Amino acid sequence: MTASERLKQILEDNPEQNFENSEDLEETFNEWSVNGNYDVKNIQESNLNILHALSQREIIHIMDRVLGGDSFENVLEEIAKEYLGDAWSASTTNVGEKNLNVEAKSKFESGDNEMADIVHDFDEELYSSEEFVTLSQNVPLRIDHNERQLLKLVEGTLEVSRYTDRVDIGSASRSKIIVNEIRQVCAVLSGLAVSFDYELGQRLIKDRSFSENEKFFQTVFEIARRYKMLNPETMRDSYGKLVFLLMDAQKESIRELLQFRCYKPVLTVYEFLKSKNCLDILSDPLLPIATRNVEQVDDVNILNSRLTKKRLAIKELLRRYATKDYSEQCNKKSTSRGFYNLFMLGRSNQTQETEISNQSGIVTSTGSLESLEKTQDTKEITVEELEMCIYSLNDHDVFLYYNKRPIDKMIEYLTTFFNPHKEQSRDLSLSLVSDPNSTARLSHDHSRQYHYVLQSLTMWREVLFNMIRLWRLAEDDLLDGNNGYRLGDTGQGIHRIQSAPRLYKAMCEIISKVQREVGNWVGSSVIHLGDRTVPNALVFIDKYLQVPKILTPIVLCIEKIDKLSNSSIHLKIFIENSFGGVLSLKQQILVDFFKHGFDGGGADNFFDAGSCIDGRLTSAWNWCSNIEKKPYFPIFLLTGFVGFDGKF
Fold first, then answer.
1. Which of 169, 246, 463, 613 is the most exposed place for a label (fewest CB within 10 A)?
2. By the 8 A CB rule, do 193 and 204 touch?
3. What gap in Å lies between CA 341 and CA 559, rounded to an integer?
4. What is the pLDDT of residues 366-389, one digit of tens each?
């Protein structure tokens, strides 16, 4: 069987399967070279990257053209340009040839090439190189497999800890309690390290001196914070404990008693690329394509085309910037004892020197500790490390898509179903004045309420778009040793009340931008931070991470109503008799939410409610708490509703 016949046979079984295994791909082309007089060894690496990114149908098309007399390299070049436009022309440049890279970048930004089609395909404008630099300075780096092992230790330690229960109490000897609890957390963490790897863990507790293992504790706590930022749904309880522990450990008086530091800044994509002398990738025109989230669409051809573009962009970036020889060297030296590497990295310099001089340090197949440190300090970036950076930026784009989408859909529903200037009918009125059953604390007419809801949704979208930057600023405020806090009763228990000047300034900038975008501002623009309403920056971040959880169930319910009605004649009759049809049902849900989810209610007193920045979110949460009383609640259940907090 010839190679072409073999591929066609595979195509009949799975036409969209890709050659993920390079050995299979090379075997197929070696088989083809027997009949086609083409030696696979002569395939350039860049061309092989193209082949890996293509589907079998596309590869068969290439083979047919080559067997028909076309040049193999020219065919691949045409396909690459078809997907990536003139940006692919930069593939012939070296990383050091910055002039050619700048030229390719200018061509990319000019819009006079096929890249415009790619921008259109992804439905959103791409980041500029300056925006990518700013973004990379805030996006945390993904944790790798070895760091994930340490993450499990931290999560286990924080799960069993009762740090805040024992520390956040009124006591004259609170400093001693804090120090004892921090030491207890470190002791449990050390114990779990022993159970994870006895030989290495026992060295961690050898002298029972936490100060000698300062870098180890800094590393594991930083890994946990980095993981949480990229995965907000995880560590729902333990992250708060960790932040409060680090908040206390940053105090000068506590540091003197502890004799070591627990905090170090989160490792970002920018800092990692800078340490590897690879910042040029941030200005590469292929990076926006490689990091763009590919939205699921019904058309398989469009989806496969977008995925192919993304795979091609990633492989070309790896070819341009990663050091292949160094990557292969690291692969040969890698061992299964990744925990050891992180453990030794966490030892203080003094302890490391002592162990080396006494010849008591552990030596693995990679050599001594000295050679390990050289590996950590190298200026070459491997394929795996560069992939980690690309996927970290992609993770952020995925976060934006899934968190901004419900807000965009609600804005679409508002502008589609409602007239901004007048009521289309009594059933579509957003007025809070004429509703005798309303408990609203605002008295907006239809037009004023429409613009109030629109600007609130726009503000939420802008906050979530900047969430990763706001999160970084929030941690800077929380973990500033010179920014003290006090314990206070906010009406919802004892909280740490602390100012957040960096976060407050950023929020003022966001509100100003939204005000310029929406025009006349309805309601108050007061931002509560560091008071009994929003005690600290951690509460602020947690509150705005709830916005997608509030809106997503509503959007999903409305999107599934048509399918629900068509699924059963009995359900269709029920919807017709109870709500007047599918369209009327959607309108009733939206009217109720846009009115009573933004009515200024939900607080325990008049001063904490209203139209302030925080009060808008409080009203929405209040609406969610009464969902069971709504006449359309059975429809929510039938469309898969399980709660506004999602699944734990």
1. 169
2. yes
3. 50
4. 332 233 333 445 568 899 999 999
Q: Which residues contact 396 (CB under 8 A, 6 or more apart)?
A: 135, 139, 230, 291, 468
The pTM is what? 0.77
Q: Which CA distances in Å does 511 have to 5, 456, 503, 519, 597?
A: 62, 10, 12, 12, 20
pLDDT of res. 215: 87
Q: How many CB atoms lie within 10 A of CB 625?
A: 10
Query: Cα dihedral angle (354, 355, 359, 363), rounded to 10 degrees?
Result: -150
Residue 293, pLDDT > 80, answer yes
- State phi, psi for 488 to the nearest 5 degrees: -150, 155
Is 17 in contact with 60 (CB distance < 8 Å)?
no
Q: How far apart are CA 524 and CA 215, in angstroms?
A: 46
Please provide the DSSP assignment of 515-536 as one string: HHHH-SPPS------SSSSS-S
CA 453, distance to chain mean position in Å, is 27
CA distance linking residue 169 with residue 494, whole number of Å: 8
Question: CA 68, CA 57: separation in Å to the nearest integer?
Answer: 17
Tens digits of per-residue pLDDT, 1-12?
A: 555 555 455 445
What digits encode the pLDDT tens for the residues 267-292? 999 999 999 999 999 999 899 999 99
Percent of the chain with pLDDT over 90: 40
Lookup: tokens for 215:
């870098």
Is residue 95 exposed (0-12), middle (13-18) or buried (19+ Cβ within 10 Å)? middle
- Residue 545 contacts residue 406 (beta carbons within 8 Å): no
Cβ 320 vs Cβ 91: under 8 Å: yes
Residue 125 has pLDDT above 50, yes or no: no
For the chain, how big is the Rg over CA atoms in Å?
Answer: 29
Contact, 366 vs 372, CB < 8 A? yes
In 322-382, alpha helices (H): 324-333, 338-346, 349-357, 369-377
Share of the chain above pLDDT 70, in %: 68
pLDDT at 493 over 80: yes
CA dihedral 550, 154, 145, 223 (to 10 degrees): 70
Please state, in angstroms and rounded to a whole number, the distance separating the CA atoms of residues 178 and 183.
Answer: 9
